[in-house]
Amino acid sequence: MKKLVLLILFPILIISVCSARVDSILSKKLIEMATLDQEIMQNPPKSIKPASEEHMRLIDSIAAVNYQEAKIIFEKYGFPGFDLVGEEGSKSFWLIVQHCDKWPDFQRQVLEKMEI
To answer: What is the DSSP string of 1-35?
Structure first.
């Protein structure tokens, strides 16, 4: 009976421990950053004409803020993988990095860490 209980509880315990490692606050932050990035790119405010100079400046300003945040995150954690921020958080970080075209050295650093 004890073995049966252990067989049932052990996988639950393992899943709980693994799930607890995900930094949900960081994950949420990355997802929100990527969501704003995409929203501004695809749906600029009604007062701004899509693909206009003003729209491009807005996109650049979001990219600059995201770059600063992503750089801090990268310096602290390296590439935030699934184990740290979950799949969606990790994919959000990579999307943010892809839009850091004005900072190709940063993009290269992140890509190198991803390949490890």
So the answer is: -HHHHHHHHHHHHHHHHHHHTS-HHHHHHHHHHHH
- Give CA–CA dist 31/85, Å, rounded: 10
DSSP code of residue 54: H
pLDDT tens per residue across span 20-56: 579 999 999 999 999 999 999 999 999 999 999 999 9
Interior angle at CA 51, CA 50 and CA 56, nearest 5: 110
Q: Which two tokens stand for residue 3?
A: 């073995």
At 51-78, the pLDDT tens digits run 999 999 999 999 999 999 999 999 999 9
